[in-house]
Design a protein that fits this description.
The chain has 2 domains: 145 residues, no CATH class; 162 residues, no CATH class. Helices cover 46% and strands 12% of the residues. The chain is built from 9 helices and 10 strands. Strands 3-4-10-9 form a 4-stranded antiparallel β-sheet, with no helix packed on it. Strand 7 and strand 8 form a beta hairpin. Helix 2 runs antiparallel to helix 9.
Length: 327
């Protein structure tokens, strides 16, 4: 934590208004916490961003006044500063008022004495900022942000970085898959028996296709514009980018260059099956159908497709090649 001063800056304005300024603790890397007023999740931004009029939540995308993103610790520190000022101001006013009165008054056996007492201010609260675990740099505004989950927006400029979102989704999926390997053997067996490992592999595959769709949609809008995106989704259905071959064809037309050069015919066929597998997982409870069979799937129609961890990891790798070729 970077030390924060205890002195409260005071600027007296017109109409009996007062502007107080107080420093807030920061992490050693110069970042300070923020908490979204909408989704209530925590993140950190550069100290230079404090004065920005607006901040965007990296998780849900809500944009609001930067003051609305103050954390509970920061609010408590500011309230403590305001309380200290209020007590000091009240003491000053009372001392001035009492100073004009006689120090003491005596009538017979009764003596009244008035003296300003010693002012004891409450402490100015401080705190430790949450540890920075992962820092990301926005390719648009080049500012840093620290997030603690899947983030889709830059808190500083508010823009979405589709390639960064995909890379983060891959890192998250890999971290979860790797974490299961470090479980004690007995817990891993229980997880496997309950279908947890199967569910995890299926979720990763679904997330990969979702991330691919989001990247295609965002990249297409960047290249061709919002109107063209709306038109292509209207003419090809809104979920057009969930269909691998069709999505690649559309993106190649928009970018004016091939995207599948890094994939062999066998790898392209592999991805086609993976996307068809995701479709039946999402829309048919995983039961193979005619569309799945037409895509080259090997599971007989009417049976449930099986998604392995190897398939999930392989899909991430191949989809990553296509997405990186878009940039």
């Amino acid at each position: 934590m970077t030390a924060a001063g205890t002195k409260v800056g005071i600027q007296r304005l017109k109409n009996h208004r007062v502007l107080l300024s107080i420093s807030l603790p920061t992490s050693p890397d110069g970042t300070a916490g923020r908490k979204c007023p909408s989704c209530r999740r925590f993140f950190k931004v550069d100290r230079e961003v404090f004065g920005h009029p607006e901040i965007t939540c990296p998780y849900c995308g809500a944009t609001n006044s930067s003051n609305q993103f103050l954390t509970l610790d920061q609010r408590r520190r500011l309230r403590a500063a305001a309380s200290r000022f209020g007590l000091a101001e009240m003491h000053r006013l009372l001392s001035n008022a009492l100073g004009s009165l006689p120090r003491s008054s005596s009538r017979g056996l009764i003596e009244i004495s008035i003296r300003p007492g010693r002012l004891e201010l409450p402490p100015l609260l401080t705190y430790l900022e949450q540890e920075t675990i992962r820092t990301s740099v926005c390719t648009r505004c080049a500012r840093n942000a620290s997030v603690y989950g899947i983030a889709m927006f830059c808190p500083n400029c508010g823009k979405r970085e589709s390639i960064a979102v995909f890379e983060q989704a891959v890192r998250s999926a890999v971290a979860v898959l790797d974490a299961t390997k470090s479980l004690p053997l007995e817990k891993r067996r229980v997880l496997e028996a309950e279908g947890g490992l199967d569910q995890l592999a299926e979720n990763v595959l679904e997330d990969v296709v979702t991330a691919f769709e989001g990247c295609c949609r965002t990249r297409y809008e960047e290249v061709a514009g919002p109107g063209a995106l709306a038109s292509i989704q209207s003419s090809h259905r809104r979920n057009v980018f969930q269909r691998f071959e069709e999505a690649v064809t559309i993106m190649e037309g928009a970018l004016g260059r091939p995207l599948g050069a890094g994939l062999s015919p066998a790898e392209s066929a592999e991805l086609k099956v993976a996307f068809a597998t995701r479709h039946v997982l999402t829309h048919n409870m995983g039961i193979a159908d005619a569309r799945y069979a037409a895509s080259g799937g090997v599971t007989p129609t009417g049976q449930r497709v099986q998604v392995t961890e190897t398939m999930a990891r392989r899909s991430m790798e191949l989809v990553g090649r296509i997405i990186r070729a878009m940039y």
